[in-house]
UniProtKB/TrEMBL annotation:
Family the UniProt entry places it in: Belongs to the cytochrome P450 family.
Top-rank taxon: Eukaryota
Subcellular location: Membrane
Organism this protein belongs to: Quercus rubra (Northern red oak)
PROSITE patterns according to UniProt: CYTOCHROME_P450
Signal peptide range in chain numbering: none
Protein name per Swiss-Prot or TrEMBL: Cytochrome P450
GO cellular component annotations of the record: membrane
Membrane topology: Single-pass membrane protein
Required co-factors: heme
Annotated transmembrane regions: 12-31
Length: 532
């Protein structure tokens, strides 16, 4: 009798548990998405009709496949190639307007390309708006729980610790390191030119610039040379390739917990990257204890800030984990994006020799006969107006950032809309930067003069200029990135001239950042002038 009663209770608990799971699954995959879409629909927001349970995944795949079949590799530089990156975003924009909704499985997305809404969004300071939470697990091997993908109090705490170290009064001390590393790379270019036929070297420059930027980050931020960071950069690049699929970005079905061949490779790389970074941290601490480092690097200052901080430490925050994730974030964002920006800038200057000459002439006028004078006076950087305009226009057309995203962790008021909790908002940067309604009929053209009076006068809606993000999550490293670009480009343009190689194939692709699929291949010659 008692055994029967126990069995009956046990089976009742099992049934209740199964029902609870089914109810939760039903809520997450059916009721919640239906409620969100209904709220958006009532506000006049339309989009492609989803099907259960895949949403608009099949339509995305169909549009993507059609674009791949109809796109020729190596298209002209002047062609508007942005439609090839995420063609479904562009196609739906034409069908449903600047604001629309779509689904990937149970995830509900809202595409936004209305400048006024971007302005409103940039003013929101609440922690109820952050990075999409489903990306947290997907990009964890590459970025950990670092500032790029953290949310809430964890993000706010990290930003307060990190941001002061990237103020101008701090990063200006890194100018000497940037100069030294660039000079080393330039010597290798000079040797290639000497060894080339006719003094013209046909070079793929982006790999050299990645190594240069990696060396700068290692020396300036971690006090180690590139030789120590070489393995880290290589493995992070491999992780980036593995995680740069659109299926990861838009939350399509990702079974990252299964021991597939791809997942096992990701897990192995993550473990190796973590081990290598911890070794760099340990070596750096030992050198500091011995007093062999004359100045504190970013890593040491971050450790001190974390220890000395009076702020309440977020639950689960661990200093060792914070430092590893900080290194991952800086290695990824600090060297990759700046190197790509420099590569695209030199490609555009090779295509527009008149601007290449204008910038070179300006450098000569500002710094005189000795280029080193430029780096001894921070005020001189503000006088490099031509170079600044070229950088701003280049990152408008070929900025490393391709898509920006936000998730509403609570209902958010946005202009005349209420964005429901759980919606993922997306912004396609190349399209925003080429919108003729904002930039004019010449939006596809390389015209640095549009920035002669700064960003605020370059277009109708400056809030739609997003090379470094927007709002309270604006890239904290933008001051360092701009300084590095100015130093590197000033040095390079003072010594070399560039033109497009006949072998250059123009094919920008998405690999978490805007990447040249076949490299940036240029003809490089020694500049014959008095600058030096």
């Amino acid at each position: 009798m008692e055994q029967g009663l126990v069995a009956e209770i046990w089976w009742s608990l099992v049934v209740i548990g199964v029902c609870s799971v089914l109810i939760r699954v039903c809520h997450e995959v059916w009721l919640k998405p239906r409620r969100i879409r209904s709220m958006l629909w009532r506000q006049g927001i339309r989009g492609p009709q989803p099907s259960f349970p895949y949403g608009n995944i099949s339509e995305i795949q169909k549009i993507q496949s059609s674009m791949i079949n109809n796109t020729s590799d190596g298209q002209p530089v002047s062609e508007n190639w942005t439609h090839s990156l995420f063609p479904y975003l562009q196609q739906w924009r034409q069908e449903y307007g600047p604001v629309y909704m779509y689904s990937t499985g149970s995830k509900q997305h809202m595409y936004v390309s209305e400048p006024e809404l971007l302005k409103e969004l940039g003013l929101i300071k609440s922690l109820d708006l952050g990075r999409p939470s489903y990306l947290a697990g997907a990009f964890q091997p590459l970025l950990g729980d670092g500032i790029i993908r953290a949310n809430g109090s964890n993000w706010a705490y990290q930003r307060k610790l990190i941001a002061p170290e990237f103020f101008l009064n701090k990063v200006k001390n890194m100018v000497g390191v940037i100069e030294q590393s660039t000079i080393v790379m330039m010597k290798t270019w000079e040797n290639r030119i000497l060894e080339s036929e006719g003094g013209v070297a046909d070079m793929i420059i982006d790999e050299d610039l990645k190594r240069l930027s990696a060396d700068i980050i290692s020396r300036a931020c971690f006090g180690s040379s590139y030789s120590q960071g070489n393995q880290i950069f290589s493995k992070i690049a491999s992780l980036q390739d593995a995680l740069s699929k659109p299926s990861v970005l838009f939350g399509l079905f990702n079974f990252r917990f299964l021991p597939t061949k791809s997942n096992r490779e990701i897990w192995r790389l993550k473990k190796e990257v973590d081990t290598l970074i911890l070794k760099v941290v340990k070596d750096c601490q030992q050198e500091n204890q011995k007093g062999t480092i004359p100045e504190k690097n970013l890593l040491q200052m971050m450790l001190e800030s974390a220890v000395a901080s009076d702020d309440k430490v977020p639950r689960g925050f661990k200093t060792d984990r914070f430092i590893v994730d900080l290194c991952k974030n800086i290695y990824f964002a600090g060297h990759e994006s700046t190197a790509l920006a420099a590569s695209w800038i030199l490609m555009l200057l090779a295509l527009h020799p008149e601007w290449q000459e204008r910038v070179r002439t300006e450098i000569l006028e500002v710094c005189g006969e000795q280029l080193s004078n430029l780096f001894q006076d921070m005020e001189a950087f503000r006088k490099l107006k031509m170079l600044t305009m070229v950088i701003q226009e280049s990152i408008r057309l070929y900025g490393p950032a391709v898509v920006l995203s936000r998730e509403a962790f609570a209902d958010i008021k946005l202009g005349g809309f209420v964005v429901p909790k759980g919606v993922h908002m997306w912004f396609f940067v190349p399209a925003l930067h080429r919108d003729p309604e904002n930039w004019g009929l010449d939006a596809l053209e390389f015209k640095p003069e549009r920035f002669v009076q700064g960003v605020s006068k370059a277009c109708k809606y400056p809030q739609a200029y997003l090379p470094f993000g927007y709002g309270n999550r604006l890239c904290i490293g933008q001051t360092f990135a701009m300084l590095e670009l100015k130093v590197v480009l000033s040095l390079i343009l003072s010594k070399f001239s560039f033109s497009l190689s006949p072998e250059y194939r123009h094919s920008p692709v998405y690999k978490m950042l805007l990447t040249p699929q076949h490299g940036v291949r240029l003809l490089v010659t020694k500049f014959q002038g008095s600058l030096g």
